[in-house]
Design goal:
Aspartate Aminotransferase, domain 1, 12 helices, Aminotrans_V_PyrdxlP_BS, alpha/beta, about 400 residues, 14 strands, binds pyridoxal-5'-phosphate, Aspartate Aminotransferase, domain 2
């Protein structure tokens, strides 16, 4: 018998493990001998102290994106931040217009929310990206109307790693008097973010994609009279009235620490990940019929280095996933009872259905080692060759 080992984790884009330093901070705010008090309690010292912890984390998250701490609204994650940005902004700005512009390859937290807005009577224009997964400013310009209130386009795509030029896209939105929202859940720590320089009005953030805990995120809401957001969750009027609910001190302190660590080791993390990506790509060179759905090999930096979405021609993605049971990766496909639907993101950039069904997303992170990459490569080569070999006669 062999000892069971954990699979090699190459699914950082789905979630990253929390950094041990983050967990250490989180453990300070839960039990009776600690700072467990409600940060909204104004009547005692313990409440004020908990509030100070929240405010420090607010500064850490704000610093990471060049915002003012007063512009950070805590949420339960990027999904809630996306809902608050789209629904909250569109409902609060009906007099500006009922038109929203977004794209077909946004995260489901945007796609499904935009569909919900359509049912509520808002009108949505769905932009189709190029093969490189990017929306061009000229495309956005052509979609803008007098009644466009908001444009929402993601900074980094979670399945492809493709990068949008959010600064140029925001400029187009503003030319037409619309506000600009970006889902930056995959962008933090991967590309430089500065809400002032890039002129972002609303930005969604997540804790767990950046080595923080799951279940916490934030929406950056620019402090400007034109950027009004209506609450979706009503209660005690926390977070400038935009999001009620007792603040989870441990989650928020963890996200703050994670974002501070991200800033401290931004260069180190990215150099490490770039090295892993190069090693992974070199290791695949000997394997025929491998295509990258992630835009590669250019100086324009059209994709982040931690996500590689690859198509293995002639190999069924689900079978490959099964054959690679010692490597944790994902397909973007959705399983129904009857069949497997290819990833809507891959179809959205024009990938043929058969190639989309042959694709897997590999994503690396801070704790991935060169040994992980080498081991995964050996398993991939073996699995792909095995699945491509025509089945042999049973009797030999
Ligand atoms: C993970 C992710 C989300 C959802 O974030 P949660 O914090 O898990 O709700 C939203 N958008 C993108 C692009 C993501 O990658």
């Amino acid at each position: 018998m062999t000892t069971p080992t954990l699979p090699i984790y190459l699914d950082y884009a789905a979630t990253a493990p929390a950094d041990a330093r983050v967990v250490e901070v989180m453990q300070r705010y839960l039990t009776v001998d600690q700072l467990f008090a409600n940060p909204a309690s104004r009547s005692h010292m313990l409440g004020w102290q908990a509030e100070q912890v929240i405010e420090q984390a607010r500064r850490q998250v704000a610093d990471a994106i060049g915002a003012d701490p007063r512009e950070i609204v805590w949420t339960s994650g990027a999904t809630e931040a996306d809902n608050l940005a789209l629904i909250g902004f569109m409902r609060a700005n009906r007099e500006r217009g009922l038109h929203l512009v977004t794209s077909t390859i946004e995260h489901k937290a945007i796609v499904d929310t935009a569909h919900a807005l359509e049912k509520e009577g808002f009108e949505v224009t769905w932009l189709t990206p190029g093969q490189d997964g990017r929306i061009e400013p000229e495309q956005l310009r052509a979609a803008m109307r007098d009644d466009t209130a908001l444009v929402s386009l993601m900074a980094v795509n979670n399945e492809l790693g493709s990068i949008n030029d959010i600064s140029a896209l925001a400029a187009v939105a503003h030319e037409f008097g619309a506000a600009f929202h970006t889902d930056a859940a995959q962008a933090v720590g991967r590309i430089p973010l500065d809400v002032v320089a890039q002129q972002i009005d609303l930005m969604s953030l997540s804790g767990h994609k950046t080595y923080g805990p799951k279940g916490v995120g934030a929406l950056y809401v620019k402090r400007h009279p034109d950027i009004r957001v209506e609450a979706l969750i009503h209660g005690g009027g926390h977070e400038r009235g935009m999001r009620s609910g007792t603040l989870p001190t441990h989650q928020i302190a963890g996200m703050g620490e994670a974002f501070a660590l991200m800033q401290q080791q931004y260069d180190e993390d990215n150099a490490h990940i770039m090295g892993l990506q190069q090693r992974f790509l070199r290791g695949l060179e000997g394997l025929d019929g491998v295509f990258s759905n992630t835009p590669l090999n250019d100086t324009e930096k059209r994709a982040v280095p931690n996500i590689l979405n690859l198509a293995f021609e002639g190999v069924d993605g689900e079978s490959l996933l099964m054959a690679l049971r010692d490597v944790a990766v994902s397909t973007g496909s959705a399983c129904n009872s009857a069949s497997v639907d290819p990833s809507y993101v891959l179809l959205g950039i024009g990938t043929p259905r058969s190639l989309a069904l042959s694709s897997l997303r590999f994503s690396f992170g801070r704790f991935t080692t060169e040994a992980d990459i080498d081991h995964a490569l050996a398993l991939i080569r073996h699995a792909v060759s095995g699945l491509r070999t025509p089945p042999r006669q049973a009797a030999d």
